[in-house]
Specification:
Blueprint (H helix, E strand, L loop, with lengths): L6 E6 L7 H14 L4 E6 L1 H8 L6 H15 L7 E4 L5 H12 L2 H5 L2 H9 L8 H4 L1 H10 L5 E4 L4 H18 L7 E4 L27 H9 L20 H9 L3 H13 L4 H27 L2 H29 L5
Parallel strand pairs: 1-2, 2-3, 4-5
Helix pairs in contact: 3-13, 4-8, 4-14, 8-9, 10-13, 11-13
The chain binds tryptophan.
The site of tryptophan has 12 residues, from strand 1 and helix 8.
Length: 332
């Protein structure tokens, strides 16, 4: 007998090219999870629209570009199901039915809702679509009986809402949907080049598409210990982005420890620390760049993978919706 692996569901919004924050915060974990789980990874294009609705040009290009990066990073389309949310319209139907039972205040009190509306002032986020973001996410997960959702700290509140919504739905309609669990993996939080959160809108990213020279230039400009105006002044290693990156990307731990010791003692210059960092990062990124080029040499293949994966996902979604409709007594 084949024992089914527990299922994992996770999505990424196609709002731009992927950067190191995506790689460290999600992608590496996605790749590792394939060993033990039946993974469903998708392009959350409708989620991207909740904030980018005013200008969605680029969305589909980013979607396929992101999928190419996933594959280059090691997501295996043979083992995992890669799909596009909007190619599985059942997500919208489940979202609609969930919306019947979810009280609006539950959505309003999700912390990211208020935060994002305040932070992204240039966008009008007083829309139903934006309010419904975590509910759509609930539909994404429940659709595949997703037991586990790999999330970072920032997504825990969304998942808590998903669990509450599923419980409420099941109270009305029987045990129709599976309650998801967060799969909290300790992912190091990678700061941006300027030590703020890494984000495209801050212009402080290193992208997976950056070439060798771009990485060297960006690393050279990286924020370090501001107190250290000369190489002979002892510096702080803890929380210093240059060393956070060394820890994340430099496999030569002896070199990293030596640099840290000399940094603390004021016997190493920033140039040396950064040159060694850029070298380690380029060594890590190079195989991914090569695979990305191979993948993108056949763009039709990338599209095929996404379309074929969506077909597979849709078959499951249709079975789930048959069960859901029966639960709601929508039977004709
Ligand atoms: N909210 C997630 C993000 O910002 C994207 C997402 C949409 C997602 N639906 C999901 C993640 C379902 C996990 C499960 O990256």
């Amino acid at each position: 007998m084949v024992t089914a692996k527990p299922r994992v569901v996770s999505g990424m919004r196609p709002t731009g090219r992927l950067h190191l924050g995506h790689l460290v915060g999600a992608l590496k974990n996605w790749v590792a999870l394939q060993e033990r789980y039946d993974c469903f990874y998708f392009v959350a294009d409708w989620h991207a629209l909740t904030s980018e609705y005013a200008d969605a040009t680029g969305l589909t290009d980013y979607a396929l570009d992101n999928v190419a990066d996933w594959i280059a990073a090691g997501v295996d389309p043979e083992r995992s199901t890669i799909f596009v949310q909007s190619l599985v319209p059942e997500h919208a139907e489940l979202y609609l039915l969930l919306s019947m039972v979810v009280p609006i205040p539950w959505l309003e009190r999700v912390p990211t809702y208020k935060e994002q509306r305040e932070q992204l002032k240039e966008k009008d986020l007083s829309t139903l679509g934006f309010l419904g973001y975590p509910l759509l996410q609930t539909a994404d997960i429940a659709m595949y009986d997703g037991r586990f959702v790999p999330v970072g700290e920032d997504q825990v509140a969304h998942l808590e809402l998903s669990r509450e919504v599923v419980r409420r739905f099941n109270q009305f309609y029987g045990e129709v949907l599976v309650e998801p669990q967060p799969l909290l993996t300790a992912v190091p939080r990678l700061p941006g080049l300027d030590n703020r959160k890494m984000s495209k809108s801050y212009g402080n990213t290193i992208d997976l598409t950056d070439d060798d020279e771009a990485v060297r230039n960006k690393v050279r400009q990286m924020y370090t210990d501001p107190k250290r105006i000369r190489a002979d002044i002892p510096g702080t290693v803890e929380g210093n982005p240059v060393f956070v990156y060394h820890d994340a990307f430099n496999p030569d731990t002896a070199e990293v420890e030596e640099l840290k010791a000399r940094y603390r003692a004021g016997t190493v210059g920033d140039v040396e620390v950064k040159t060694k960092l850029a070298r380690a990062m380029n060594a890590m990124l190079e195989p991914m760049r090569e695979r990305r080029l191979e993948v993108l040499a056949r763009p039709e293949r990338v599209r095929e993978i996404a379309v074929e994966g969506s077909r597979r996902a849709r078959a499951i979604a249709q079975a789930t919706m048959a069960r859901v409709r029966a639960g709601v007594r929508l039977r004709y």
